[in-house]
């Protein structure tokens, strides 16, 4: 596996995760805010909102390269569903402690799973 191939797989994955993370955060804020409350700073993007998806994409790209270079391209959907489920566990644990609306928790969990499955599809396309 060349570094160029990894970087070319990382770039679209990082873009996808950054966009999906931002959309999920905006959707979650809209679902959990009380009715009639103003949006506040909905347009402000913090550096951490960009940095962490980039790191997540790098780790996911390395994880995918291990899969596609050693075991082949079959079963990637199940692999990334499981990775997404592992990433969703903190959402469920936080929800258990904070007690937000169930609909918001379910949508956030589904969004996390979708982020990983789409990222897996991108990586299967670039690395598979």
Measured between the Cα atoms of the first and last residue, the distance is 12 Å
Mean pLDDT: 82
Q: What is the global morphology?
A: elongated
Helix-strand topology string: HHHH
The low-confidence parts are: none
Number of helices: 4
Relative helix content: over 70%
How much of the residues is beta strand, in percent?
Answer: under 5%
> Tally of extended strands?
0
CA radius of gyration: 16 Å
Largest sheet descriptor: none
Would you tell me the structural class of the helices and strands? mainly alpha
What does this structure look like?
This protein has 128 residues and is an all-alpha fold. The protein is 80% helix and 0% strand. The protein contains four helices and no strands. The chain starts with a helix and ends with a helix.
Give short descriptive properties of this protein.
single chain; 128 residues; mainly alpha; 4 helices; 0% strand; elongated
Summarize the structure.
The chain is mainly α.
What is the strand and helix layout of this fold?
Elements: H1 3-32, H2 47-70, H3 76-98, H4 102-127
Helix pairs in contact: 1-2, 1-4, 2-4, 3-4
